[in-house]
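Below is how a single chain appears once it has passed through the pipeline. First comes the sequence as given, then the structure the pipeline wrote out for it. We keep one example in the README because the format questions we get most often are answered faster by looking than by reading.
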Amino acid sequence: MIASPAQEQRSLPRIPRTVWALGLVSLFMDVSSEIIHALLPLFLTTTLGVSVAVVGLIDGVAESTASIVKVFSGYVSDRLGRRKPLILLGYGLGALSKPLFPIASEALLVFGARFADRVGKGLRGAPRDALVADVTPEAIRGRAYGARQALDTTGAFLGPLLAIALMALFANDMRAVFWVAAIPAGLSVLCVVIGVEDRPRDPCARTTRAPVRLRDITRLGRPFWSVVAIGVVFTLARFSEAFLILKASAEGLPLALAPLVLVVMNAVYALGAYPAGALSDSLRPANLLLWGLAALIAADLSLAFAPGIAGAFLGIALWGAHMALTQGLLAKLVAEAAPQALRGSAFGLFNLATGLALLAASVIAGLVWDRLGPAATFLGGAGFAASACLLLLGWRRLSGA
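Resulting structure:
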C-alpha cells in the first residue's frame, strides 16, 4: 500500500530543538544587524559623505573577511569535535561590535565595526551550518535548513521595520537608532548559552579517530567542488543588498523609509525559505536552482528598466524570492557532498569561495554604478545570472542532479 503525502509527512522525524534554537539566535542577531545595515549605506553616503564605490568596497571586504574566517572556524570545529564554543564566540563578537557604529565619525571606523562584526559571523557561520547537519536526520535536512533560514530571515525583515519606527521616534537620528541595535544582539548571545546543544558525541571517537588534519581536506571530492563552483557563479550574480537600498533611494524613497527595502526583500525570503527547503527534500536540486536564477534575472531586469519606486520594489521582491529558492538548498548540497568528519571545513571552504566572489561582485558593482549608473550595474548582474544558468545546465547533465 502506497502512503499518502499526509502519512509521509507524519512519519518524518521532527526538526531537532537545537535547530530551532539556532534559528532564534539568528533571528535576534539579524534584527540587530539589519537595524544597522538598513541605514548604513545612506549613513555612509549622506552623513559621512563617501562614494558608492567605497560603500561597495566596505561591504565586499567585510563579507569576504567573514568567509575567510569561516575556513578556519569550520576546520577548528571539526578538529575539536565541538561546534558550540565557536558559535558562542562568533555571536559574542558580533554583539560587541554593535556600539562602534553609533560612535563612528569617519568611514574608517565604520569599516572597523563591519570588519569585527563579520569576523564574528565567520567564526559562527560554518560551525552553525555544520551543527544543523550533525543533529538532523538526512530525510528532513532540507526542511531543517529551511526552518533555520526562515527564522534568520524573519529577523532580517523585523530589523528594518524596527529601524523605520526608531527613525520616526528619534527624528531621523541614525546614531540613536544604532544604539538600540545592541539590545537584540545581547539576547542572541543569551540564546546560544541557554538553548544550543553541541553536536552528538561518539564516546569512542576521541580514542579511535585522529583529529582532522589539513591534508584530510583532499578527501573533498568532485561533487563538493562542483557545488562550490555553482555557489561562486551564483554569488557573482548577487552583489551586496546595499545596492538595492541605493536604487530605491535614487528612485525617490525617503530616508526614513529606506529600511523598507530590506523589509520587502526579507519578508519574501522568510516566507519562501521553509517551503523551498521542503521542496529540496523531494525535487532535483538543479531544477530548484534554475528557478532561483530565473527569479534573480527577473529581479535585475526590473531594477534596471522598471520605472519608479514600484519598479524598484518589484525587483527587490524578486531578489528575495531568489534567495529563498537557493540559499538553504546550497547549504544542504554542501552538507551532503562532504564527509561528516569534514563538514565544518567544507562549509568554511564553500563560504570562502563565495565570499571572495561577493567581494569581487560588490566592488565591480560599485565601480559600474559610479561610472555607468544603476541600470548598467543590474544588467551586469543579469548577465552573470545567465552565465550561472548555463553552468547549472551543464552540471545537471553531467551529474544527473
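Residues 1-8, 204-210 have pLDDT under 50 and may be disordered.

See the next section for the split statistics.
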